Amino acid sequence: MKPLVLAAVAAVALAGPAHASVIPFLGSVTADGSNFKFNYTGRLAADQGVTSGNQLVIVDFAGYVPGSVFSTLANVTASTSSTLPAGLLLMPGFTDNAAIPDLVFTYTGPDFHTTGGPFPSFTDFAGFGAVSTIGTTHVGSFSSVAVKNFGDLSGTPVLSEGQVSIPGVPEPATWAMMLIGFFGLGALLRRRGRTPAIA
Q: Structural domains in the chain?
């Protein structure tokens, strides 16, 4: 019974993203001087397209270096905002801290895959992100909007929200566990140093 339940959960998890619109993934974090460049990739679902004004937002990008948000994608502008743009959804359990910038990527080109779908596969893209003073990551939130590309709902907005890796420092409990571990290791090494050698 348990394997069947796990298989069902896995099937739902794998099927879930197929119905989402634009989904970002953290591709890499690379050193950028004393800072860290977060490079994201993304995926557009086969049953959706984008039209001018559609957006992808990475919420609360901690440690943001002013002016560092970028997009190398044709027809996609990059900016920041202190609040989630109107009409987008925030994933339950997450908040949007106005003191931490959101990364906003806006499509400005002609309609792309807005009709004639669903297409045979996803559309993957890369070349957007920002620089942070923080090199560690934690789970954050994203929000996006695209349009349905087939059937009676063709051309209607599709809103999505989900989780994505963003810059972050360990939680206080994590710091406490790390410190306890370091102290324990130090005590163990110190004790070993005082143990007389047995001939």
A: 2-170 (2.60.40)
